[in-house]
Amino acid sequence: MNVKRVYSIAIDGPAGAGKSTMAKLLAKKLGFVYVDTGAIYRTVGYHMDLMGIGPKDADGVLRLLDDVNLEITYDEGGVQHMILNGRDVSGEIRTPEMSKIASQISALSCVRTFLLDMQRDVAKTHNVIMDGRDIGTVVLPKADVKIYLTASAEVRAERRLKELQEKGMDVKYETVLKEIKERDHQDMTRTIAPLKQAKDALLLDTSELNLEQSVAAMESIIRERIVL
Ligand code: DC
Fold first, then answer.
1. In contact, 208 and 18? CB cutoff 8 Å
2. What would the pLDDT profile of 77-121 be if each residue is shown by its tens digit?
3. Probe target for ligand 1 pocket from 70, 98, 109, 133, with the most ligand atoms within 8 Å of CB
4. Which stretches of the chain are DSSP H helices?
5. Of 19, 219, 225, 227, which has the highest C-beta tally within 10 A?
6. In contact, 122 and 35? CB cutoff 8 Å
7. What's phi and psi for 137, nearest 5 deg?
8. Nearest atom, ligand 1, residue 99 CA
9. Residue 210: what are its φ and ψ, rounded to 5°?
10. How many other CB atoms are there within 10 angstroms of residue 86's CB atom?
11. Whose CA is nearest to atom 13 of ligand 1?
């Protein structure tokens, strides 16, 4: 039997490092499926919030997970959409409040276990570029390429501020920087699957690079390791 080989690329790093922007561009270029795992955690957090369950109420969250039916779909442009119980919530999950809730909820072991197979299943059947916090360490430990993408908190806050302002949100640099630092702390210090660089991941720091340079650097790391 001739089983088709699929490739996986794991990109981890802190909030605002540019993971999704870069992964999306490269997925398109390489013909891979882009999986934004942060969006999956955000959707679970959104559901809990909708139901009035706080992110620290582990029992309540566990109880409600049974009611969570998640689907990942892609539009013609290859953009990922999150469908929660039949409703597209891709817009609603992109607020600073949902960033915070997603970070808190993702520290719960019941949530991580619930989402693990879903993420692995996509990578079994498709060439994927998957981004998140624990892709190279936990979700896809055998990924063909692992990249740890980072930038200083200040640079990340500036980029995030621009993004939010472009969406018409009225936010201050200091607030964004504070939120970024809090999220780094929460994601890096949690007990289960904390954000860290996998031993075999390559470090790419984009503090001094613009988007075009960052994408070029990432593409060359990938092409050196995968021959398509
Ligand atoms: O990538 P993002 O900012 O959309 O992710 C939102 C939160 O989800 C992040 O702060 C931590 C959590 N997350 C996680 O724990 N593991 C992942 N693989 C992806 C995201």
1. no
2. 889 999 999 999 999 999 989 999 999 999 999 999 999 999 999
3. 133
4. 19-30, 37-50, 58-65, 96-105, 109-125, 153-166, 173-189, 211-225
5. 19
6. yes
7. -90, -35
8. 6
9. -85, 180
10. 7
11. 38
